Please model this.
Amino acid sequence: MKNIILSTDSYKVSHYKQYPEGAEYISSYIEARGSDDPDFDSVMTVGIQAFINEYLMKPITGNDIKEADEILTAHGYEFNKQDWVNILYDHNGYLPLEIAALPEGTITPLSIPLVQVVNTDPRFPWLTSYIETALLRAIWYPSTVATNSRTIRNVLKAYSNKSGDGFVDFKLHDFGARGVSSSESAAIGGAAHLMTGALGTDTVESLLYLRRNYGANMAGFSIPAAEHSTITTWGDMGEADAFRNNIKQFDGEGKIFAVVSDSYDIDFAIDEIWGGIMKEEVRNLKGTLVIRPDSGNPLTEPGRIISKLMNIFGFQWNEKGYRVLPPYIRVIQGDGITKDSIKAIISDLDTKKISMDNIAFGMGGGMLQLVNRDTLKFAMKANSITINGITNDVYKKPIGDSSKGSKAGMQGVFRGRNGNLYAMALSEYSAQMELARDNLLQPVYRNGEQFNITTLDEIRERANA
Model:
Protein backbone atom coordinates (compact mmCIF):
# COMPACT_ATOMS: atom_id res chain seq x y z
CA MET A 1 0.00 0.00 0.00
CA LYS A 2 1.82 3.09 -1.24
CA ASN A 3 -1.16 5.34 -1.99
CA ILE A 4 -1.17 7.46 1.17
CA ILE A 5 -4.68 8.74 0.38
CA LEU A 6 -6.00 5.22 0.91
CA SER A 7 -3.81 4.46 3.92
CA THR A 8 -6.54 5.56 6.31
CA ASP A 9 -9.71 4.41 8.05
CA SER A 10 -12.82 4.71 5.91
CA TYR A 11 -14.69 6.98 8.30
CA LYS A 12 -11.98 9.62 8.10
CA VAL A 13 -12.99 10.30 4.50
CA SER A 14 -16.09 12.01 5.90
CA HIS A 15 -14.28 14.15 8.47
CA TYR A 16 -13.58 17.12 6.21
CA LYS A 17 -17.28 17.96 6.60
CA GLN A 18 -17.32 17.62 10.38
CA TYR A 19 -14.98 20.29 11.74
CA PRO A 20 -16.24 23.73 12.86
CA GLU A 21 -16.81 26.34 10.17
CA GLY A 22 -13.75 28.54 9.80
CA ALA A 23 -11.36 25.80 11.01
CA GLU A 24 -7.85 26.49 9.73
CA TYR A 25 -5.31 24.47 11.72
CA ILE A 26 -5.61 21.34 13.83
CA SER A 27 -2.80 19.90 15.90
CA SER A 28 -2.62 16.34 17.24
CA TYR A 29 -0.04 14.36 19.20
CA ILE A 30 0.93 10.72 19.70
CA GLU A 31 1.78 9.21 23.07
CA ALA A 32 2.01 5.88 24.86
CA ARG A 33 -0.60 6.44 27.53
CA GLY A 34 0.36 3.63 29.88
CA SER A 35 0.74 -0.11 30.32
CA ASP A 36 -0.73 -2.91 32.38
CA ASP A 37 2.71 -4.56 32.43
CA PRO A 38 4.79 -3.25 35.37
CA ASP A 39 7.99 -3.85 33.37
CA PHE A 40 6.98 -1.12 30.93
CA ASP A 41 7.36 2.21 32.69
CA SER A 42 8.97 3.96 29.74
CA VAL A 43 8.95 3.84 25.95
CA MET A 44 11.71 3.93 23.34
CA THR A 45 10.47 5.98 20.41
CA VAL A 46 11.50 4.90 16.90
CA GLY A 47 10.10 4.69 13.38
CA ILE A 48 9.16 8.20 12.28
CA GLN A 49 12.11 8.80 9.93
CA ALA A 50 11.53 5.61 7.98
CA PHE A 51 7.82 6.38 7.62
CA ILE A 52 8.56 9.87 6.32
CA ASN A 53 11.19 8.58 3.95
CA GLU A 54 9.08 5.76 2.55
CA TYR A 55 5.66 7.43 2.47
CA LEU A 56 5.75 11.23 2.78
CA MET A 57 8.78 11.93 0.60
CA LYS A 58 6.97 10.35 -2.34
CA PRO A 59 4.39 12.89 -3.59
CA ILE A 60 0.88 11.84 -4.45
CA THR A 61 0.05 11.65 -8.15
CA GLY A 62 -2.96 12.17 -10.32
CA ASN A 63 -3.29 8.42 -10.57
CA ASP A 64 -3.37 8.17 -6.76
CA ILE A 65 -6.25 10.66 -6.66
CA LYS A 66 -8.08 8.85 -9.47
CA GLU A 67 -7.68 5.51 -7.72
CA ALA A 68 -8.85 6.97 -4.38
CA ASP A 69 -11.85 8.64 -6.02
CA GLU A 70 -12.95 5.40 -7.68
CA ILE A 71 -12.54 3.26 -4.59
CA LEU A 72 -13.93 5.62 -1.96
CA THR A 73 -16.92 6.69 -4.07
CA ALA A 74 -17.82 3.06 -4.69
CA HIS A 75 -17.20 2.45 -0.98
CA GLY A 76 -20.02 4.86 -0.14
CA TYR A 77 -18.25 8.16 0.57
CA GLU A 78 -18.30 11.62 -0.94
CA PHE A 79 -14.58 11.95 -1.62
CA ASN A 80 -13.12 15.46 -1.36
CA LYS A 81 -11.29 15.07 -4.65
CA GLN A 82 -10.75 18.79 -5.21
CA ASP A 83 -8.82 19.15 -1.96
CA TRP A 84 -6.41 16.46 -3.09
CA VAL A 85 -6.12 18.02 -6.52
CA ASN A 86 -5.19 21.29 -4.81
CA ILE A 87 -2.55 19.48 -2.76
CA LEU A 88 -1.22 17.93 -5.96
CA TYR A 89 -0.87 21.26 -7.81
CA ASP A 90 -0.27 23.76 -4.99
CA HIS A 91 2.13 21.58 -2.98
CA ASN A 92 3.59 19.43 -5.76
CA GLY A 93 1.86 16.42 -4.26
CA TYR A 94 3.56 16.66 -0.87
CA LEU A 95 1.30 16.67 2.16
CA PRO A 96 1.10 20.17 3.71
CA LEU A 97 1.90 19.05 7.23
CA GLU A 98 4.51 19.77 9.86
CA ILE A 99 5.54 16.81 11.97
CA ALA A 100 7.69 17.22 15.06
CA ALA A 101 9.11 14.29 17.00
CA LEU A 102 11.47 13.35 19.77
CA PRO A 103 14.87 12.18 18.50
CA GLU A 104 14.59 8.48 17.72
CA GLY A 105 16.03 6.30 20.46
CA THR A 106 14.88 8.69 23.17
CA ILE A 107 13.66 6.90 26.29
CA THR A 108 10.71 8.70 27.84
CA PRO A 109 8.28 8.05 30.67
CA LEU A 110 4.86 6.94 29.53
CA SER A 111 2.31 9.65 28.77
CA ILE A 112 4.83 11.94 27.08
CA PRO A 113 4.15 13.15 23.51
CA LEU A 114 6.44 11.40 21.06
CA VAL A 115 5.15 13.02 17.87
CA GLN A 116 3.08 16.11 17.09
CA VAL A 117 1.53 16.98 13.73
CA VAL A 118 -0.29 20.05 12.39
CA ASN A 119 -1.44 21.06 8.91
CA THR A 120 0.41 23.97 7.30
CA ASP A 121 -2.24 25.03 4.75
CA PRO A 122 -5.40 26.44 6.37
CA ARG A 123 -7.54 24.95 3.60
CA PHE A 124 -6.86 21.44 4.88
CA PRO A 125 -7.36 21.26 8.67
CA TRP A 126 -8.85 17.77 8.21
CA LEU A 127 -5.50 16.44 6.95
CA THR A 128 -3.98 16.22 10.45
CA SER A 129 -6.39 13.55 11.58
CA TYR A 130 -6.60 11.94 8.15
CA ILE A 131 -2.96 10.87 8.46
CA GLU A 132 -3.54 9.31 11.90
CA THR A 133 -4.02 5.73 10.73
CA ALA A 134 -0.74 5.56 8.84
CA LEU A 135 1.25 7.74 11.25
CA LEU A 136 0.14 6.06 14.47
CA ARG A 137 0.79 2.64 12.98
CA ALA A 138 4.26 3.79 11.95
CA ILE A 139 5.05 4.76 15.55
CA TRP A 140 3.28 2.35 17.89
CA TYR A 141 4.56 -0.88 16.35
CA PRO A 142 8.32 -0.23 16.15
CA SER A 143 8.30 1.73 19.42
CA THR A 144 6.57 -1.14 21.23
CA VAL A 145 8.91 -3.74 19.75
CA ALA A 146 11.93 -1.60 20.67
CA THR A 147 10.61 -1.04 24.19
CA ASN A 148 10.06 -4.77 24.70
CA SER A 149 13.46 -5.67 23.25
CA ARG A 150 15.24 -3.01 25.30
CA THR A 151 13.48 -4.17 28.48
CA ILE A 152 14.70 -7.71 27.85
CA ARG A 153 18.16 -6.38 27.02
CA ASN A 154 18.27 -4.70 30.43
CA VAL A 155 17.26 -7.96 32.13
CA LEU A 156 20.01 -9.81 30.29
CA LYS A 157 22.51 -7.06 31.04
CA ALA A 158 21.78 -7.19 34.75
CA TYR A 159 22.28 -10.96 34.90
CA SER A 160 25.34 -10.82 32.67
CA ASN A 161 26.90 -8.19 34.93
CA LYS A 162 26.12 -10.41 37.92
CA SER A 163 27.27 -13.72 36.48
CA GLY A 164 29.45 -13.10 33.44
CA ASP A 165 31.29 -10.69 31.19
CA GLY A 166 28.48 -8.13 30.85
CA PHE A 167 28.41 -8.26 27.04
CA VAL A 168 24.87 -8.78 25.74
CA ASP A 169 24.83 -7.40 22.18
CA PHE A 170 24.47 -10.94 20.79
CA LYS A 171 22.43 -12.43 23.64
CA LEU A 172 18.99 -11.68 22.16
CA HIS A 173 18.73 -12.82 18.54
CA ASP A 174 15.78 -11.98 16.28
CA PHE A 175 14.12 -15.17 14.99
CA GLY A 176 10.86 -13.40 14.17
CA ALA A 177 10.69 -12.96 10.38
CA ARG A 178 8.46 -15.96 9.72
CA GLY A 179 6.14 -15.20 12.63
CA VAL A 180 4.88 -11.79 11.56
CA SER A 181 2.04 -10.74 9.32
CA SER A 182 4.06 -9.34 6.42
CA SER A 183 7.47 -8.57 5.01
CA GLU A 184 7.03 -4.93 6.04
CA SER A 185 6.29 -5.97 9.64
CA ALA A 186 9.45 -8.07 9.63
CA ALA A 187 11.48 -5.13 8.36
CA ILE A 188 10.04 -2.56 10.76
CA GLY A 189 9.94 -4.78 13.84
CA GLY A 190 13.31 -6.33 13.15
CA ALA A 191 14.83 -2.89 12.70
CA ALA A 192 13.32 -1.72 15.99
CA HIS A 193 15.03 -4.61 17.79
CA LEU A 194 18.40 -3.68 16.28
CA MET A 195 17.91 -0.03 17.23
CA THR A 196 18.22 -0.98 20.90
CA GLY A 197 21.87 -1.90 20.39
CA ALA A 198 21.30 -5.59 19.69
CA LEU A 199 23.50 -7.01 16.94
CA GLY A 200 21.97 -10.44 16.41
CA THR A 201 19.28 -11.05 13.79
CA ASP A 202 18.10 -13.49 11.17
CA THR A 203 15.55 -11.01 9.79
CA VAL A 204 17.18 -9.94 6.55
CA GLU A 205 14.45 -7.42 5.68
CA SER A 206 15.43 -5.37 8.74
CA LEU A 207 18.98 -4.95 7.42
CA LEU A 208 17.73 -3.51 4.15
CA TYR A 209 15.24 -1.29 5.98
CA LEU A 210 17.97 0.23 8.17
CA ARG A 211 20.32 0.56 5.23
CA ARG A 212 17.76 2.54 3.22
CA ASN A 213 16.32 4.67 6.02
CA TYR A 214 18.99 5.07 8.71
CA GLY A 215 22.34 5.00 6.94
CA ALA A 216 23.39 1.62 8.37
CA ASN A 217 25.71 -0.23 6.04
CA MET A 218 25.32 -3.39 8.15
CA ALA A 219 23.14 -3.30 11.24
CA GLY A 220 23.29 -6.89 12.45
CA PHE A 221 24.96 -10.26 12.14
CA SER A 222 24.18 -13.96 12.19
CA ILE A 223 25.90 -17.36 12.14
CA PRO A 224 25.45 -20.60 10.16
CA ALA A 225 22.78 -22.67 11.86
CA ALA A 226 21.09 -26.00 11.26
CA GLU A 227 17.33 -26.51 11.12
CA HIS A 228 15.47 -29.76 11.53
CA SER A 229 15.30 -30.36 7.77
CA THR A 230 19.08 -30.24 7.46
CA ILE A 231 19.38 -32.85 10.22
CA THR A 232 16.41 -35.15 9.58
CA THR A 233 17.14 -35.56 5.86
CA TRP A 234 20.16 -37.60 6.96
CA GLY A 235 17.74 -40.06 8.60
CA ASP A 236 17.39 -41.03 12.24
CA MET A 237 20.44 -43.27 11.97
CA GLY A 238 22.43 -40.50 10.30
CA GLU A 239 22.13 -37.79 12.98
CA ALA A 240 25.81 -38.09 13.92
CA ASP A 241 26.76 -37.76 10.27
CA ALA A 242 24.64 -34.61 10.04
CA PHE A 243 26.38 -33.22 13.12
CA ARG A 244 29.81 -34.06 11.68
CA ASN A 245 28.90 -32.36 8.42
CA ASN A 246 28.19 -29.14 10.27
CA ILE A 247 31.59 -29.29 11.91
CA LYS A 248 33.21 -29.97 8.56
CA GLN A 249 31.40 -27.11 6.83
CA PHE A 250 31.55 -24.40 9.47
CA ASP A 251 34.23 -24.96 12.11
CA GLY A 252 37.25 -22.68 12.03
CA GLU A 253 39.26 -20.30 14.12
CA GLY A 254 36.87 -17.79 15.69
CA LYS A 255 33.87 -19.32 13.89
CA ILE A 256 30.53 -19.92 15.61
CA PHE A 257 27.82 -22.26 14.32
CA ALA A 258 24.59 -23.64 15.78
CA VAL A 259 23.17 -27.14 15.50
CA VAL A 260 19.62 -28.04 16.51
CA SER A 261 19.89 -31.28 18.45
CA ASP A 262 16.41 -32.40 19.46
CA SER A 263 15.22 -33.90 16.16
CA TYR A 264 14.74 -37.28 17.88
CA ASP A 265 16.05 -37.37 21.45
CA ILE A 266 18.16 -34.51 22.75
CA ASP A 267 19.42 -36.52 25.72
CA PHE A 268 20.67 -39.21 23.36
CA ALA A 269 22.17 -36.55 21.10
CA ILE A 270 24.12 -35.03 23.97
CA ASP A 271 25.02 -38.18 25.91
CA GLU A 272 25.73 -40.54 23.03
CA ILE A 273 26.70 -38.32 20.10
CA TRP A 274 28.06 -34.89 21.09
CA GLY A 275 29.34 -36.18 24.44
CA GLY A 276 29.88 -39.77 23.32
CA ILE A 277 31.22 -40.80 19.94
CA MET A 278 32.01 -37.18 18.99
CA LYS A 279 33.34 -35.99 22.34
CA GLU A 280 36.93 -35.59 21.19
CA GLU A 281 35.82 -33.91 17.96
CA VAL A 282 33.93 -31.35 20.01
CA ARG A 283 36.88 -30.81 22.36
CA ASN A 284 39.14 -30.22 19.35
CA LEU A 285 36.92 -27.62 17.72
CA LYS A 286 38.71 -24.47 16.62
CA GLY A 287 35.52 -22.45 16.86
CA THR A 288 32.37 -22.70 18.98
CA LEU A 289 29.49 -25.16 18.65
CA VAL A 290 26.16 -23.79 19.84
CA ILE A 291 23.67 -26.52 20.70
CA ARG A 292 20.00 -25.63 20.25
CA PRO A 293 17.26 -27.50 22.08
CA ASP A 294 13.86 -26.81 20.51
CA SER A 295 11.41 -28.75 22.65
CA GLY A 296 10.69 -29.58 26.26
CA ASN A 297 9.87 -27.10 29.00
CA PRO A 298 11.43 -23.82 27.79
CA LEU A 299 11.74 -22.52 31.34
CA THR A 300 13.94 -25.35 32.61
CA GLU A 301 15.39 -26.99 29.49
CA PRO A 302 18.23 -24.47 29.02
CA GLY A 303 19.53 -25.01 32.56
CA ARG A 304 19.13 -28.77 32.24
CA ILE A 305 20.99 -28.93 28.92
CA ILE A 306 23.82 -26.68 30.11
CA SER A 307 24.17 -28.80 33.25
CA LYS A 308 24.38 -31.99 31.16
CA LEU A 309 27.06 -30.42 28.97
CA MET A 310 29.01 -29.34 32.05
CA ASN A 311 28.90 -32.90 33.40
CA ILE A 312 30.38 -34.13 30.12
CA PHE A 313 32.77 -31.38 29.05
CA GLY A 314 33.51 -29.76 32.38
CA PHE A 315 33.37 -26.11 33.41
CA GLN A 316 35.31 -23.38 35.14
CA TRP A 317 34.27 -21.07 37.95
CA ASN A 318 34.58 -17.43 36.89
CA GLU A 319 35.61 -14.60 39.20
CA LYS A 320 31.95 -13.90 39.99
CA GLY A 321 31.33 -17.38 41.31
CA TYR A 322 29.42 -18.79 38.33
CA ARG A 323 30.10 -21.80 36.15
CA VAL A 324 31.16 -21.43 32.52
CA LEU A 325 31.39 -24.12 29.83
CA PRO A 326 34.62 -24.55 27.84
CA PRO A 327 34.83 -21.94 25.06
CA TYR A 328 34.16 -24.49 22.32
CA ILE A 329 30.55 -25.17 23.37
CA ARG A 330 27.52 -23.00 24.16
CA VAL A 331 23.69 -23.17 24.10
CA ILE A 332 20.97 -21.10 22.44
CA GLN A 333 17.32 -21.34 23.47
CA GLY A 334 14.91 -20.32 20.73
CA ASP A 335 11.70 -22.05 21.79
CA GLY A 336 9.06 -20.36 23.94
CA ILE A 337 11.02 -17.17 24.46
CA THR A 338 9.27 -14.08 25.80
CA LYS A 339 10.22 -11.35 28.23
CA ASP A 340 8.72 -13.30 31.10
CA SER A 341 10.12 -16.69 30.10
CA ILE A 342 13.62 -15.19 29.90
CA LYS A 343 13.21 -13.96 33.47
CA ALA A 344 12.21 -17.46 34.58
CA ILE A 345 15.09 -19.08 32.70
CA ILE A 346 17.59 -16.67 34.22
CA SER A 347 16.20 -17.39 37.67
CA ASP A 348 16.72 -21.09 37.06
CA LEU A 349 20.27 -20.49 35.80
CA ASP A 350 21.03 -18.38 38.86
CA THR A 351 20.01 -21.14 41.26
CA LYS A 352 22.35 -23.49 39.39
CA LYS A 353 25.18 -20.93 39.40
CA ILE A 354 25.29 -21.00 35.59
CA SER A 355 26.78 -17.88 34.02
CA MET A 356 25.02 -15.83 31.36
CA ASP A 357 28.15 -16.43 29.25
CA ASN A 358 26.87 -19.93 28.45
CA ILE A 359 23.68 -19.01 26.68
CA ALA A 360 21.97 -16.81 24.13
CA PHE A 361 18.28 -16.51 23.26
CA GLY A 362 16.47 -16.55 19.93
CA MET A 363 13.14 -14.76 20.06
CA GLY A 364 10.55 -15.02 17.29
CA GLY A 365 6.88 -14.20 17.58
CA GLY A 366 7.37 -13.05 21.16
CA MET A 367 9.50 -10.19 19.87
CA LEU A 368 7.87 -9.06 16.64
CA GLN A 369 4.29 -10.29 16.90
CA LEU A 370 3.29 -10.60 20.57
CA VAL A 371 2.61 -6.87 20.86
CA ASN A 372 -0.32 -4.66 19.92
CA ARG A 373 -1.35 -1.02 20.14
CA ASP A 374 -2.68 -1.57 23.66
CA THR A 375 0.58 -3.00 24.99
CA LEU A 376 1.60 0.60 25.69
CA LYS A 377 -1.86 2.08 25.03
CA PHE A 378 -0.76 4.21 22.09
CA ALA A 379 -3.12 6.91 20.86
CA MET A 380 -3.18 10.02 18.69
CA LYS A 381 -5.41 12.84 19.89
CA ALA A 382 -6.21 16.39 18.81
CA ASN A 383 -4.93 19.07 21.18
CA SER A 384 -5.43 22.41 19.40
CA ILE A 385 -7.60 24.07 16.76
CA THR A 386 -7.39 27.49 15.13
CA ILE A 387 -10.72 28.89 13.93
CA ASN A 388 -10.73 32.20 12.02
CA GLY A 389 -7.33 33.07 13.48
CA ILE A 390 -8.21 32.22 17.10
CA THR A 391 -6.49 29.21 18.68
CA ASN A 392 -8.20 27.11 21.31
CA ASP A 393 -7.07 24.09 23.29
CA VAL A 394 -8.72 20.78 22.45
CA TYR A 395 -8.97 17.80 24.79
CA LYS A 396 -11.12 14.85 25.81
CA LYS A 397 -12.02 13.95 29.40
CA PRO A 398 -14.37 10.96 29.47
CA ILE A 399 -16.08 10.75 32.83
CA GLY A 400 -16.10 6.96 32.72
CA ASP A 401 -12.38 6.41 32.09
CA SER A 402 -9.82 9.02 33.13
CA SER A 403 -7.01 6.98 31.53
CA LYS A 404 -8.37 7.98 28.13
CA GLY A 405 -8.19 11.69 28.78
CA SER A 406 -5.94 13.72 26.51
CA LYS A 407 -3.60 16.69 26.75
CA ALA A 408 -4.90 20.17 25.97
CA GLY A 409 -2.92 22.57 23.79
CA MET A 410 0.08 22.12 21.51
CA GLN A 411 2.69 20.30 23.54
CA GLY A 412 6.36 20.73 24.23
CA VAL A 413 8.66 18.14 25.79
CA PHE A 414 11.41 19.42 28.05
CA ARG A 415 14.17 18.03 30.23
CA GLY A 416 13.93 19.07 33.86
CA ARG A 417 16.80 19.94 36.16
CA ASN A 418 16.80 16.35 37.42
CA GLY A 419 17.23 15.11 33.85
CA ASN A 420 13.72 13.69 33.59
CA LEU A 421 11.47 14.51 30.65
CA TYR A 422 8.12 16.21 31.12
CA ALA A 423 5.44 17.59 28.81
CA MET A 424 3.62 20.90 29.01
CA ALA A 425 1.37 22.93 26.75
CA LEU A 426 3.41 25.62 25.02
CA SER A 427 0.69 28.14 25.84
CA GLU A 428 1.54 27.77 29.52
CA TYR A 429 4.97 29.29 29.06
CA SER A 430 5.24 33.01 29.59
CA ALA A 431 8.37 33.09 27.42
CA GLN A 432 7.09 30.69 24.81
CA MET A 433 9.33 31.73 21.92
CA GLU A 434 12.48 31.71 24.02
CA LEU A 435 11.82 28.33 25.61
CA ALA A 436 10.66 26.73 22.38
CA ARG A 437 14.34 26.30 21.50
CA ASP A 438 14.54 23.79 24.36
CA ASN A 439 11.56 21.81 23.10
CA LEU A 440 12.72 18.27 22.32
CA LEU A 441 9.86 17.86 19.85
CA GLN A 442 11.77 19.02 16.80
CA PRO A 443 10.56 19.23 13.18
CA VAL A 444 11.26 16.12 11.12
CA TYR A 445 8.95 16.89 8.17
CA ARG A 446 7.45 20.02 6.68
CA ASN A 447 5.75 20.30 3.29
CA GLY A 448 7.89 17.68 1.57
CA GLU A 449 11.19 18.40 3.35
CA GLN A 450 12.92 16.23 5.95
CA PHE A 451 14.73 17.69 8.95
CA ASN A 452 16.93 16.41 11.79
CA ILE A 453 17.80 13.21 9.98
CA THR A 454 19.34 10.65 12.32
CA THR A 455 21.38 7.46 11.96
CA LEU A 456 21.22 4.02 13.52
CA ASP A 457 24.41 4.73 15.47
CA GLU A 458 22.88 7.87 16.99
CA ILE A 459 19.69 6.01 17.88
CA ARG A 460 21.63 3.26 19.61
CA GLU A 461 23.64 5.82 21.52
CA ARG A 462 20.48 7.52 22.82
CA ALA A 463 18.88 4.21 23.71
CA ASN A 464 21.87 3.20 25.83
CA ALA A 465 22.81 6.56 27.27
Remarks:
- The chain has two domains: 4-143+371-463, 223-333.
- The mean pLDDT is 96.
